[in-house]
Design brief:
heterodimer; A: 355 residues; alpha+beta; Phosphorylase Kinase, domain 1; Transferase(Phosphotransferase), domain 1; 5-stranded antiparallel sheet; 3-stranded antiparallel sheet; 14 helices; 41% helix; disordered N terminus; B: 312 residues; 2 domains; 16% strand
Chain lengths: 355, 312
């Protein structure tokens, strides 16, 4: 990566900050650590992620997340690193990223050493391919839920499940990342500020906004949002971006629009029902555990495609109009079914055609 | 290379802004305010938003656009934005002249309801400022007593002793809600959400925002100036948002003695539907001007008499 990509155009910044905000050159040794920088993998909000080698370039490779120098003085941010390492030490599951070490460079910048993954997060995947076929989305969500179930079994609620934190490896395995704001349920002392809500506003369960007791079912809600977005290409309340109070009101009070209305390809009614169940306002009305939701999604995903009743959700929307002219309605229904059947024959149906 | 050999010093919260902080003046849910010294030694107030923005370059670009519009506003009832930018850790900041006085929030908490003639006069200042900003295409979006500053005018000694000139109301934080909210969104973390006590229904639902959104919030502010209380008694965040959408607010006249004109002016301003509100700050202002004539002609009851009235 060229230096031009890395410079920060803040005229007033002293040189040291420019260096700190920009990336490390390959071959650089991280002072005070056994790691050598191989290359930068990406930029995150908290820090950059590098591929590193331990000892020498021939040594084992890891992903190393290094906190931005500009954030080192923020205790909340440093705590997230510690939290992530602490949580990771409790979970051992193929669908959860492994964290091996937490350390500090010679200049007191905290870093995390993680399993090196090749692939992309689901936000990037969605950007690359557009909305996913339901079967594929169901499989990815079920894998994420397996990882979350393992976390829950270890007494950890993730609290920040979103496409950016779900990583799809090139081998097709989904890994849950970033337990930085996870809550250890057995542990009362979490780092939450008084009067603050914790998470990502657009993917937060109602009870998370209310600062109420949050349990595993908050992750079920967020996983439901992720699945919603994978099949429709957008979140249910995306138009409220940047309006925190309106988002809060929507998550707590407004029913999400039926995903079949937003999906590009017809969506089976029972898949839609499962998504909406995971998004119930009251935790008691959702799937009661990540495991339960994963099993339900696998059953839906395993069905032969021809059983999906493509026309049904569309019909439901048109009902008020169609009630006036039943003959037209019947014709539309027939047409809808025909299109649905025809589309179901090839492996990737209507999505491609519509796009 | 030295990058990692050098310890990063604990720095001034305003480092990178060109201002040096002298002391912290206060902080709210979403921002902190510092008394600071500018590059040429002038003393200013610098407000730093708490929201940390990750893509600093993008935030700088958007701020530059918004800051230009803000800097162009020159009106006695609007605080001037002297400079704006993004701190090294990605938080937008604004420099403005340091004002003497107190916020309307402090005043209401300290002294309760404001006599109607004085309230009208202060409020006309608010509407004048709003009108100028709306004309420049800027909607405030976050009007509330904590964002309205009462600057005392110099006291003049008249023949009969001390005559107090009326305070000047200055609107703070124009356009900041937009910068701190839409378009630039912090990623995950801890949030302290603001209060929806002055949030218009269209803001609760995420609908289109225009000048009438400010008319609604201004109407709620006037209601509180006149009665000392918000029309919605509830406290919870969701409860308040539901009330903004569905609850019919009581009339000002049911709580304090004011003329029909003024009572009606407030009621129209806080209609749920933007279409039924005063269509602009200018129209609202004309209505308040007329009402103010009536309020000034009424014998002003003492504060004690007013509170006894309210109690009975």
């Amino acid at each position: 990566m060229s230096d031009a990509d890395l410079t920060v155009d803040l005229d007033s910044s002293p040189p040291i900050d420019v260096l700190a905000v920009s990336g490390l050159p390959p071959g650089e040794r991280l002072h005070g650590t056994p790691y050598l920088v191989v290359r930068r993998l990406g930029r995150g909000g908290m820090g950059d992620v590098y591929e590193v080698a331990e000892g020498s370039l021939a040594g084992p490779r890891y992903a190393l997340k290094l906190l931005h120098a500009a954030l080192c003085h923020r205790s909340d941010v440093a705590l997230r690193f510690q939290q992530e390492a602490l949580v990771a030490s409790r979970i051992d599951h193929p669908n959860v990223v492994r964290v091996f070490a937490l350390g500090e460079t010679a200049s007191a910048r905290p870093y995390l050493v993680m399993e090196l993954l090749r692939g992309r997060d689901l936000r990037a995947e969605l950007g690359r391919t557009g909305p996913l076929p339901a079967a594929r989305a169901l499989d990815l969500a079920a894998q994420a839920l397996d990882g979350l179930a393992a976390a829950h079994a270890a007494g950890v609620v993730h609290r920040d499940v979103k496409l950016e934190n779900l990583f799809l490896t090139d081998e097709g395995t989904l890994k849950v990342l970033d337990f930085g704001i996870a809550k250890i349920t057995a542990d009362e002392a979490s780092f939450t500020l008084p009067g603050a809500v914790v998470g990502t506003l657009r993917s937060m369960a109602p009870e998370q906004f209310a600062e109420a007791a949050v349990d595993a079912r908050a992750d079920v809600y967020a996983a439901g949002l992720a699945l919603y977005e994978l099949v429709t290409g957008r979140g249910p309340f995306d138009e409220l971006r940047g309006m925190p109070l309106a988002l809060q009101f929507a998550h707590c009070e407004r029913p999400p629009p039926a995903p079949s209305r937003l999906a590009r390809a017809p969506l089976a009614a029972d898949v839609e029902a499962a998504i909406l169940r995971s998004l119930a306002k009251s935790p008691a009305d959702r799937f009661q555990s990540a495991g339960e939701m994963a099993s339900a999604l696998r059953v839906l995903g395993a069905r032969p495609r021809t059983q999906t009743r493509a026309a049904r959700p569309r019909l439901a929307i048109r009902r008020p109009l169609g009630a006036l002219i039943p003959a037209v309605l019947a014709a539309m229904f027939a047409l809808g079914v025909a299109v649905g059947r025809a589309g179901a024959e090839p492996p990737r149906p209507a999505a491609a055609a519509i796009r | 290379m030295e990058t990692f050999g050098v310890a990063i010093p604990r720095r001034d919260p305003l480092s990178g802004t060109g201002f040096r902080s002298r002391r912290r003046l206060g902080g709210g849910a979403s921002s902190e305010v510092f008394e600071a010294e500018g590059p040429s030694g002038q003393v200013c107030a610098v407000k730093v938003l708490r929201a940390m923005h990750l893509d600093t370059r993008d935030a700088v670009r958007r701020l530059a656009l918004e800051g230009e519009a803000l800097a162009a506003l020159d009106h006695p009832n609007l605080v001037r934005v002297l400079d704006a930018g993004v701190t090294l850790d990605g938080r937008p900041w604004f420099a403005m002249p340091k004002l003497l006085g107190e916020t309307l929030r402090d005043r209401l908490d300290r002294a309760g309801a404001i006599p109607s003639a004085e309230a009208c006069s202060l409020f006309l200042g608010l509407l004048g400022g709003l009108d100028a900003a709306h004309a420049a295409g800027i909607v405030h979006r976050d009007l509330k007593p904590a964002n309205l500053f009462l600057v005392p005018r110099p006291k003049r000694l008249g023949g009969r002793g001390v005559a107090l000139d009326r305070d000047r109301l200055v609107v703070l934080d124009f356009g900041i809600a937009k910068i701190s909210g839409s378009s630039i969104e912090p990623s995950s973390g801890a949030y302290v959400l603001g209060t929806p006590r002055y949030l218009a229904p269209e803001q609760v639902l995420g609908g289109a925002i225009d000048a009438r959104t400010d008319v609604y919030a201004a109407g709620l502010v006037l209601y509180e100036m006149l009665t000392g209380q918000s029309p919605f008694a509830c406290r919870g965040v969701l409860e308040l948002m539901r009330a903004q959408l569905d609850e019919k607010p009581g009339r000002v006249r049911a709580r304090v003695r004011v003329g029909h004109e003024l009572d009606h002016a407030v009621a129209r301003a806080i209609e749920k539907s933007p279409a039924r509100r005063w269509s602009s700050a200018a129209v609202f202002s004309a209505v308040i001007e007329r009402a103010a004539v009536i309020e000034r002609s009424r014998p002003a009851p003492s504060v004690r008499a007013r509170s006894e009235e309210a109690a009975s």
